[in-house]
Amino acid sequence: MKGPGIFLAQFADDVAPFNSIDTLSKWVADLGYIGVQIPTWDTRLFNLETAASSKGYCDDYVGKLSENGLEVCELASYLQGQVLAMHPAYQKLFQGFYPKGLNAKECVVWATDQLKKTIQASVHFGTKNISVMSGGLAWPYIYPWPQRSAGLVDDAFEELVTRWTPVLDMARDHDITFGYELHPGSDLYDGATFQRFLEMTKGHAAVGLTYDASHFLLQQLDYLDFIKLFKDRIRAFHVKDAEFIPNGMTGVYGGYQDWKQRAGRFRSLGDGQIDFKRIFSMLTLAGFDGWAILEWECCVKSSEQGAQEGAPFIKNHMIEASKRSFDDFAKSETDKDLNKDILGI
Predict the structure, then answer these.
(1) DSSP assignment, residue 296?
(2) How far is Cα 223 from Cα 311, in angstroms, rounded to an integer?
């Protein structure tokens, strides 16, 4: 496992040092991070169009980061993935995610092009995973009331697969995966929906996961068992904490309240309920060799304090995998004949 890395999206701002990659990279490096996950939509930090067409731009970008002891963990195209499959009910609310003036069909074309450019840029950087959200066509019908019309979810997933397949095929051809972060608001939001997508894409080689236990805790899903089920598909790891404290007024659905009043809330690392010791142990045992990346989201603590505390938190949880057994000192030399003799066979 590599780390600590940090996702820059929540820290980008119009004021220094958060308004350019030159100054922001120095800020995160001084906090102890060694890798950055780049939001491909934020032009204050990154130019996707140029990165897709110019390896020189990417080489220069890497050079600037390396001056501060940093490297690119991966590129993230969450917003473009969301726009690729966008239910009409959300099109206006997601207006900030895509260029103004595009209709629904044009949004699909734009998002597909953006995701393909992210693949091209990833090739130039030499990174192997792109973190995304799947988008959501069936999400408004998550609760089965009113009763869904026959085949509604099947049709939504068929369309989802249709839209993603050309992008997945291109990624596979370049030995790159898309790490789907299973996120409410997207059609891929838990193990069951991911498994459905995986089966409908016939186990596509480019279908991966960006593991984030915080979204699972808020759904009351067993985030440790999830690792056992899908460890072979995990390509990146967002280290983000959360808590779920229900009461007589609100539970999983949140009562239309803001983040501070919800039963389920994202928290800074160490302030929530996620069992990170078990997660880091299980991922290490599973042979995960990707990045552990801070994604800061908290409705209580400031982003600056969250980032400052995040690097040592991740570093202290990372495990150097053992290369030998703890009881090797007591082992004895054996061979097949001796084993048969021991067993009496």
Answers:
(1) -
(2) 22
Q: How many residues belong to the chain?
A: 345
Query: Nearest-CA neighbor of 176 among 128, 126, 124?
Result: 128
Whole-number Å distance between alpha carbons of 138 and 57: 39
Terminal Cα-to-Cα distance of the chain (whole angstroms): 44
Statement: the pTM of the whole predicted model exceeds 0.90: yes
Residues 115 and 117: their CA atoms lie apart, in Å, by 5
- According to DSSP, the β-strands at 291-294 and 2-7 are parallel
Q: Which segments within 169-240 are labelled E, that is strand?
A: 177-180, 207-211, 234-239
Cα dihedral 38, 223, 168, 1 in deg (nearest 10): 50
Domains of the chain are 2-343 (3.20.20.150)
The angle that helices 191-200 and 223-230 make with each other, rounded to 10 degrees, is 20
| pLDDT, one tens digit for every residue, the chain (345 residues) | 999 999 999 999 999 999 999 999 999 999 999 999 999 999 999 999 999 999 999 999 999 999 999 999 999 999 999 999 999 999 999 999 999 999 999 999 999 999 999 999 999 999 999 999 999 999 999 999 999 999 999 999 999 999 999 999 999 999 999 999 999 999 999 999 999 999 999 999 999 999 999 999 999 999 999 999 999 999 999 999 999 999 999 999 999 999 999 999 999 999 999 999 999 999 999 999 999 999 999 999 999 999 999 999 999 999 987 777 666 666 777 789 999 998 999
Residue 324 burial by CB count (10 A; 0-12/13-18/19+): exposed, middle or buried?
Answer: exposed
**93-to-88, 97, 103, 160 alpha-carbon distances in Å:** 10, 9, 14, 20
**Rounded to an integer, what is the distance from CA 340 to the centroid of its chain?**
50
Evaluate whether 118 touches 48 at the Cβ level (below 8 Å). Answer: yes
